Coproporphyrin III ferrochelatase
Amino acid sequence: MPEQCDPRPYDALLLLSFGGPEGPDDVVPFLENVTRGRGIPRERLKEVGQHYFLFGGVSPINAQNRELLDALRKDFAEHGLDLPVYWGNRNWAPYLTDTLRTMVHDGHRRIAVLATSAYASYSGCRQYRENLADALAVLRAEGLPVPQVDKLRHYFNHPGFIRPMIDGVLASLAALPQEARDGAHLAFTTHSIPTAAADTSGTPADHTRGGEGGAYVAQHLDVARVIVDAVRAETGVDHSWRLVYQSRSGAPHIPWLEPDICDHLEERHAAGVPAVVMAPIGFVSDHMEVKYDLDTEATAKAAELGLPVARSATVGADPRFAAAVRDLLLERAAAERGRTPERCALGSLTASHDLCPVGCCPARAPRPAAAGADWRGPAAEARA
């Protein structure tokens, strides 16, 4: 097998995502899965679920994952990469545990995992690893073989992730009224998280104090700078820009990353900018937090202000992203075989680590997390 398309030691790829409801009856049970252990009353979950009910109780995320799954399989086949691709979710069907059980029954023992979260944070990385550990514990309790699972590195700065977003921003600028185009402001959006979680995101060397945001903020800022530089090179215009946040869901007394996109639109309008492009760089696809928080809520705020806005596309199932996943997989496979692969990365930050070190994106309370330096591995799990 040619070195450039050799997936060994991996015998399967798992696409691991968040999941979402696919009908009105799914909404509250889905939210119960997401918030399990937090003691949130069912009536409150019904209120939160109104965002989903506006869209018929259907989150776009599952359909988008099916599209990505198809794109990955197509890309693998076109490049001679004979590796099956499976899909599992944390919070809705197909559930992660069920998918891993199927993979084990199909004979897979060394599984690479792509999480649909590009950046370092507890909720975007370690929580996925905790869910993997929980699922593997179930398999072990059922007497099944426990496979080795390796999470592919963060891909926030991989060219196949960034370049589709550059094109999306350029297309959004072109869609603005011509008289507003050159003065348009770029608002790069991502999910707000508690400042305490942001400050402890990434490796221990990345952690900060005083709300600087650790690896989570640094990685987003680096991606935003790459996009701004590319837009300048393409258009000759140096647009003003800022990293802003959306989708806050925590208690009001707990500090979260700010400014919120709607507050930022008000501030930019007051400052006299003629238009804003909202670029959701923190999200892989146009799921509910993009469709509601940006396309519905933020767009309504802009209309109220009389401020022209355009929302750029997320990466989704872009063929360049599918090719990036193949690249990430083969890169990690080569490293596991003792090779030194070339690691693609744009911006000032280097390619992310393969194996999360101890203390990376720590949880509030210690829990087992697979696919990291603090995981004991299948052999030790089997003896436990």
